[in-house]
Amino acid sequence: MQLIDPAIIQQRIHDLQDQDLYIHLEMTTGAYASHLDSTKHPAATFISNALIRYTTGSISEKAPHFRVGLKTEHGWVYSEGLTHYEESDSERLILAGHDTQGKLVVALQLSKEPF
Amino acid sequence: MMMTIPANSRVLVVLPHPDDECYSLSGTLAKHIAGGGQVTYACLTLGEMGRNMGTPPFTNRVDLPRIREGELKKSVEAIGIQDLRMMGFHDKTIEFEDRQVLDGTILDLLTELKPSAVFTFYPGYSVHPDHDATGAAVVRAMGRLPESERPPLYTMAFSRNCTDEIGFPDTENDVGDFLQNKLDSIHAHRSQFPSPGELGKSKKMDRELRERFSRERFWTFREFPNA
């Protein structure tokens, strides 16, 4: 995984617009979040391989915690806290946000084929 | 009470994630195998929703299952486990799985292997929803065996309230002679854990590792539902 370069991601988002895509979107604080510290709130949610099509999409400019918004026919997809992308994957857009320990906090992925 | 499992017998381990075996159980398994026993490890998922990706991250959400499968195989090799079964369930979904499918899968393993002991998590006291759901499924499946054919079920628990509610573990295994297997099993899960250290680096570290890792403790589970 590479640190996000917003210009590269903006181009990739543009290349994938106006077509049926499978989306994986998740956010998690981890199943162990409240195990050692009960003040922490354990939350996790993901949607995997839902079919979406967006008419316009963009990434924010300011490092290191990027936001992505994708406008669909009837609504929106929004994700904040993205830090990394998979540079070796040219077909799919794989974005992730990692915390300072390297743990995954958020993921946004788009692909023409199911994940 | 010291743990006794018949020598040369087969043991079944049912856990949901590729690293669940290493800290609490790998020494016990290595010891059983060194004594001529067989181990079948049914790992229900590939831990594909795990948050650890290495520091700095060296993988991603898409490649993680493949990475963790490799780590699992390496850990299994370090322990000496002869029979690894990857059961193909999805991480974080065990509690939502069709119970007939899940319990049936475990019952099939029990009837095929006729193990002399079974290991899993103590349901309700094992923190991760997959751990609790796996333990509960093993308990339900074993409850369907006639009592006379039911092997002992050894469970692991580590929730904060566990000793308050279920007491202290009743079974202990000294695995001091198998520390290297255990450390190799932990090291195999490179995406998940920082290294706890290596044996032979210094006397002080050897002593620390020995204190930390040479005893494995289990709760013998006895409250099976009526079949």
Short description:
In chain A, a hairpin with a 6-residue loop joins strand 4 and strand 5. Chain A is mainly beta.
What does this structure look like?
- Chain B: GO terms for molecular function: hydrolase activity, acting on carbon-nitrogen (but not peptide) bonds, in linear amides.
- The complex is a heterodimer of chains A (115) and B (227).
- Chain A has 2 helices and 9 strands.
- Chain A has 115 residues and is mostly beta strands.
- Chain A has one domain: Hypothetical protein YojF (Protein Yojf, Chain: A, Distorted Sandwich).
- In chain A, the strands form 2 sheets. Chain A has a 6-stranded antiparallel β-sheet, with helices on one face.
- Chain B is globular, with a radius of gyration of 17 Å.
- Chain B is α/β, with parallel strands linked by helices and 227 residues long.
- In chain B, helix 2 packs antiparallel against helix 6 (179-188) and helix 3 packs across helix 4.
- The mean pLDDT of chain B is 95.
- Chain B has a 7-stranded mixed β-sheet with strand order 3-2-1-4-5-7-6, sandwiched between helices.
- Chain B starts with 9 loop residues before the first strand and ends in a 6-residue tail after the last strand.
- Helices cover 36% and strands 16% of the residues of chain B.
Task: Walk me through the topology.
The complex is a heterodimer of chains A (115) and B (227).
Chain A: E1 2-3, H1 6-15, E2 21-28, H2 33-36, E3 44-52, E4 54-59, E5 66-72, E6 76-82, E7 84-85, E8 93-98, E9 104-111
Antiparallel strand pairs in A: 1-7, 2-3, 2-9, 4-5, 5-6, 7-8, 8-9
Chain B: E1 10-15, H1 26-34, E2 38-43, H2 64-79, E3 83-86, H3 99-113, E4 117-121, H4 129-143, E5 153-156, H5 162-166, E6 171-174, H6 179-188, H7 203-213, E7 215-221
Parallel strand pairs in B: 1-2, 1-4, 2-3, 4-5
Antiparallel strand pairs in B: 5-7, 6-7
Helix pairs in contact in B: 2-6, 3-4
Pfam families (chain A): DUF1806 (PF08830)
Protein name (chain A): DUF1806 domain-containing protein
Pfam families (chain B): PIG-L
